[in-house]
UniProtKB/TrEMBL annotation:
Keywords: FAD, Flavoprotein, Metal-binding, Oxidoreductase, Zinc
Cofactor: FAD
EC number: 1.1.99.39
Subunit note: Homodimer.
Entry-linked Pfam families: FAD-oxidase_C (PF02913), FAD_binding_4 (PF01565)
Name the UniProt record assigns to this protein: D-2-hydroxyglutarate dehydrogenase
Gene3D superfamilies linked: 3.30.465.10, 3.30.70.2190, 3.30.70.2740, Vanillyl-alcohol Oxidase, Chain A, domain 4
Keyword Ion transport appears in the UniProt entry: no
SUPFAM superfamilies: FAD-binding/transporter-associated domain-like, FAD-linked oxidases, C-terminal domain
């Protein structure tokens, strides 16, 4: 460590005391996310408790030419929170309080370290609902959700994290505190910088406070799991149900995904084996709603779009049916999956999936492809499982080829290389498949305005 770095460490230790951590265990714990490509190597881990401390950390970083990496629940899948090059990790675990609740506006103000599930439970205690939901809700933090504009299983009805943030306090790369939009629903006073920070992956500044809008609680959620003969039929089923019902979710998964989940101990929903499965959810607010759902189901069966199906009759059965979708990632994890999180417009999904299947299977016929995702918003999760006899190094080398082929198809269909997981370091080389050179140039220009010394999460999204 240089003398300059030692001086910076002294300043940080003066500021934070025992909350400035330099031991190897802390570096390994806080310097990573769920990606395993880059080894964590931060110079120190900082645990601020106040906005003022965050501002001082940023000022020290600017003074000494240091780099800062934000750390939330460390559940990211793009290496956006990995500190691999001696950066300082700023972990928001101690800024984890609910600060205020406004019953009239149905909003809650929280610090960035609040766990997503904690916010969901707080909303429920107020008789309300925070609808952004996904598998890592029990450990992800609101600050991280905002930085990646997290989506999940309810987007078809409720939208992304962006749609629920009415105000932000952020510390920029200069150390300045900005209060953005102040919780307002309507505010026509020029540029809304709030939306620049949402999805910015901590490259412009740190979210230190958020005002979050809440919704009414859904009533009598009911799920249907349907077996369908092909991907075209998945789309027809989606259209048929959306024409009659306001769906809160529409998920899909392949027979291969189903096989892994069943082998993992989840109960089979019905006896018929099907190439694809849909899980759709709606509010059964009356008997008429249930009758509508059954009428659409019967029409889909008559058309040959659905081969079999089951509808939940209790909260317990609702949970059991959701296990079929929510435990896919867990069930395929032992097979070292290569994962990709991609999206196209909904109408292009069938031909897009067919194009990806073809290019991967032609090149690597021994690779098992497992599809699942949020078909109702065009977001698909491509998972390729490592053949047992193939060494990891060889598998990942081949998957680099797959990434290029897949992203070329994404570009052809005007899609996104990252629907909800962010870019980070993992997808940084491929940003040009979704963003034009002109867009990337403007993004870099915005970065320089808010973070002129490149203090904030450098090397993520793009390189300056």
């Amino acid at each position: 460590m240089t003398a300059l770095a030692h001086a910076a460490l002294e300043h940080l230790t003066e500021l934070l005391g025992a909350r400035c951590l330099t031991d190897q265990d802390s570096a390994q714990r806080y310097g990573v996310d769920w990606t395993k490509v880059w080894a964590p190597a931060p110079s120190a881990v900082l645990l601020p408790e106040t906005i003022d401390e965050v501002q001082q950390i940023v000022e020290i970083a600017n003074e000494h030419g240091l780099h800062l990496v934000p750390s939330g629940g460390r559940t990211g899948l793009s290496a956006g929170a990995v500190a691999a090059s001696g950066e300082l990790v700023v972990a928001f675990d101690r800024m984890n309080k609910v600060l205020d609740f406004n019953a009239y506006d149905r909003s809650v103000t929280v610090q960035p370290g609040v766990i997503t599930q904690q916010l969901q439970e707080y909303a429920e205690q107020q008789g309300l609902f925070y609808p952004v939901d996904f598998a890592s809700a029990g450990s992800s933090q609101i600050g991280g959700n905002i930085n990646t504009n997290a989506g999940g299983i309810k987007v078809i009805r409720y939208g992304m994290t962006r749609d629920w943030i009415t105000g932000l306090k952020v510390v920029t790369g200069k150390g300045e505190l900005l209060e953005l939009n102040k919780g307002l629903i309507k505010n026509a006073t020029g540029y809304d910088f709030r939306h620049l920070f949402i999805g910015s992956e901590g490259t412009l500044g740190f979210v230190v406070e958020a005002t979050v809008k809440l919704a009414r609680q859904p009533r009598n959620l009911t799920a249907l799991v349907l077996g369908v003969p092909g991907f075209q039929e998945v789309m027809k089923v989606l259209h048929a149900f959306q024409s009659e019902l306001d769906l809160t979710a529409f998920e899909f998964f392949s027979d291969k995904a189903m096989a892994h989940v069943l082998a993992h101990g989840v109960s089979r929903p019905f006896d018929t084996d099907c190439p694809f499965y849909c899980l759709l959810e709606f509010e059964q607010v009356s008997e008429q709603t249930a009758d509508q759902a059954m009428a659409v189901f019967e029409r889909c069966v008559e058309q040959g779009w659905v081969l079999d199906g089951v509808m939940s009759q209790s909260l317990q059965q609702l949970d059991q049916l959701w296990q079929l979708r929510e435990r896919i990632s867990e069930s395929i994890a032992p097979h070292t999956p290569y994962k990709n999180d991609i999206s196209v417009t909904i109408d292009k999904v069938p031909e897009f999936v067919e194009a990806v299947d073809t290019v991967v299977q032609d090149a690597y016929p021994d690779f098992e492809i497992v599809w699942f995702g949020h078909i109702g918003d065009g977001n698909m999760h491509l998972n390729i499982l490592k053949p047992e006899a193939l060494p990891k190094e060889d598998f990942f080398e081949k998957c680099n080829n797959v990434s290029k082929w897949v992203f070329e198809i994404v570009e052809r269909y005007n899609g996104s290389i990252s629907a909800e997981h962010g870019v980070g370091m993992t997808k940084k080389p491929y940003l040009g498949y979704s963003r034009s050179p002109e867009e990337i140039a403007y993004m870099k220009a915005v970065k320089r305005v808010f973070d002129p010394n490149n203090v904030m999460n450098p090397g993520k999204l793009f390189d300056l």
